[in-house]
Amino acid sequence: MNQQKIEAMRAGGKIMAEIFKELRDYTQPGMTGKEVDKWVEKKILSYGAGIAYYEPEVNFPGSICISVNDELIHGIPKDIPFEEGDKISYDLVIKYHGYYVDSAFTMILGKPTAAQKHLLSYTESALYEGIEQVKPGAKLGDIGFAVEKVLKKGKLGVIREYVGHGIGEKMHMPPEVPNYGKKGQGLVLQPGDTICIEPMSSLGKPDTVVVEDDDGWTVCLRDGSLGCHCEHTVLVTEDGYEIITQL
Fold first, then answer.
1. Contact, 77 vs 92, CB < 8 A?
2. Which terminal residue of the chain has fewer beta carbons within 10 Å of its beta carbon, N or C?
3. What is the pTM (predicted TM-score) of this model?
């Protein structure tokens, strides 16, 4: 195991979790994505961490991805005020002491509808069911199978075009970690591996479309249904797993 990498990612993960904890409370109706973006930027810098999305090879127009309602992932922070009942997905990558961590969560502003509760509940359950499969000797197909099984049980759309990934020295590294798969197939996990498990789901069909007039970043659901995105950075330990990006 690369102990330097693990300690840096643990520290970065705690910073991420602290920012997300505050961000849940900070987000209010009437606020805009651009206001949130500036707040997140200041928070990241206050911890002495780096804003990964600003790096030249990424060049994203914001410090955090903010995807509202039918936007699934990679939403650009906008000047449009949030409204009561909006679904908001936040996705953030930070760099700390040379290593990256990545996490995402989805929230509802105000009181959620039954459908919104269902979407978030099953997608979050899928995330943790996927994480539960992580241990030395497990295969990536075990994770994908577990995630897909929960999403299908909830009758949610399973997004296939976008997947989880390895992380550490870079933001996105091999291997790909799909949210679908077959048990016993795929790469074998080893102690010290760090991966991002990130279920993405929809209340409708799983087909997506990239909004080209939005700098080609924002990914929306083609049928206009609500999407959900949850993610943690996970370390493979000697006997199981450790969720790096939670308090």
1. no
2. C
3. 0.97
Alpha-carbon separation of residue 227 from 77, 142, 221 (angstroms): 17, 24, 7
Beta-carbon contacts of residue 237 (< 8 Å; ≥ 6 apart): 135, 136, 191
Residue 91: both structure tokens together: 């996705």
pLDDT of residue 214: 62
Full strand arrangement of the beta sheet holding 164-166: 173-177, 164-166, 194-197, 232-236, 241-243
76 with 217: CB under 8 angstroms? yes
Q: Which two tokens stand for residue 188?
A: 């074998």
If we measure between CA atoms, which residue out of 197, 196, 148, 153 comes closest to residue 171?
A: 196
Contact 140, 181 (CB under 8 A): yes
Do 189 and 239 meet the contact criterion of CB atoms below 8 Å apart?
Answer: no
- Taking only the tens place, the pLDDT of each residue in 64-90 is 999 999 999 999 999 999 999 999 999
pLDDT in tens, 176-202: 999 999 999 999 999 999 999 999 999
Neighbours of 7 (CB within 10 A): 12
Whole-angstrom Cα distance, residue 209 to residue 220?
5
How far is Cα 110 from Cα 182, in angstroms, rounded to an integer? 38
Calculate what percentage of the chain has a pLDDT beyond 90.
97
